[in-house]
Amino acid sequence: MPAEFPLNTASVNDCIIELKKIQETKSFGIILSELTESAISNDKNTWSLIYQVMRDADSGRLSWALHKEILSGFISILTQVGDSKSYRLIINYIKNLDRTIPLGAIELISDLLPTFEELDSDEIIKIASQKDDIRSAIGIIALSRLMIENKLNEDQKKAIQEFLQSYSNSKYYMKDIVESILEMIQDAEKGTSLLPENELSSLFD
User: Fold this and answer.
1) pTM (2 decimals)?
2) Region of 150 on the Ramachandran plot (φ > 0 left; ψ -120 to 50 alpha; else beta)
3) pLDDT at site 3
4) CA atoms of 136 and 133, how far apart (whole Å)
5) Are 71 and 62 in contact, with CB atoms under 8 Å apart?
6) Distance CA 108, CA 106 (A)
7) Do residues 140 and 107 lie in contact, with contact meaning Cβ atoms separated by under 8 Å?
8) In the predicted model, what is the mean pLDDT of residues 99-118?
9) How far, in whole angstroms, is CA 186 from its chain's centroid?
10) Which strand (E) or helix (H) includes residue 41?
C-alpha cells in the first residue's frame, strides 16, 4: 500500500477522507489495485474500509455526483473479489437505494451483477419488477445481460414477460431495453437466435 494511504494506521473514516482527497489523482488507481489484492486476501482492515464505504454510499455521505471514482472503484473491487459477501453488499446497496443516481452508475452496477457466481436470478427479477424506478432500472438492465448470456430458465422468462407487458419507468428511459428483452424472449420461444450483444449494447449509448 502506498505510504501516503493510512489504511493500517488510521480509522476507516480517516481513510475515506484521504480517498476523497486523492480520488482524481494517479495514485488513486494504484491504491485501488492494492486494495483489491488486499480484499482478495481477506485483509481485515481492507474489509472494514469496504464496509464503511458501502454504508456511506447507503446513507448518501458518499454520492455519485461527488465521489464517482470512489464508488465505482469499490464496486469494482467487490466484483473482482466475487464471493458471496461481495455480492450481498452490492445487492443490499441496490435494495436500500432511495435517491436518484446517474444512468452511468446504474449501467455499471447492472453490467457487473451477472459476473457473480452467487447471483440469484429470481432476486434480480424481483428487483426489476419493483415500482421504484431506480432499483427497477438496475434490475431491468441486469436482466438484459442475463438474457444475452442465456442464464434464465423458461419459468423466469415467463415471469419477466408478464410484468414487462405493463412496465413503465418515469425516471430512466427503459422502453428500448424492455422491448429488446421481450423480443429476445419471443425469439427464444420461436427458436431463433438472441439479439447480438453488440446490438444490445448500442441501446445504452
Assistant:
1) 0.85
2) left
3) 46
4) 5
5) yes
6) 5
7) no
8) 93
9) 27
10) none
pLDDT level of residue 205 (50, 70, 90 thresholds): low
* CA–CA distance, 194 with 122 (Å, rounded to integer): 21
User: Is 130 exposed, middle or buried, given 0-12, 13-18 or 19+ CB atoms closer than 10 A?
Assistant: middle
* Mean pLDDT within 74-96: 96
Cell of 145: 445481460
Asked if 22 and 28 count as a contact pair (C-beta separation under 8 A), the reply is yes
Domain boundaries, the chain: 1-81, 101-205
**What is the per-residue pLDDT across 46-83, written as a single tens digit (0 to 9) for each?**
999 999 999 999 999 999 999 999 999 999 999 999 99
79-86 contacts, C-beta under 8 A, 24 or more apart: 79/112, 79/115, 79/116, 80/36, 80/39, 80/40, 81/36, 81/39, 81/40, 82/115, 82/116, 82/117, 83/118, 84/118, 86/116
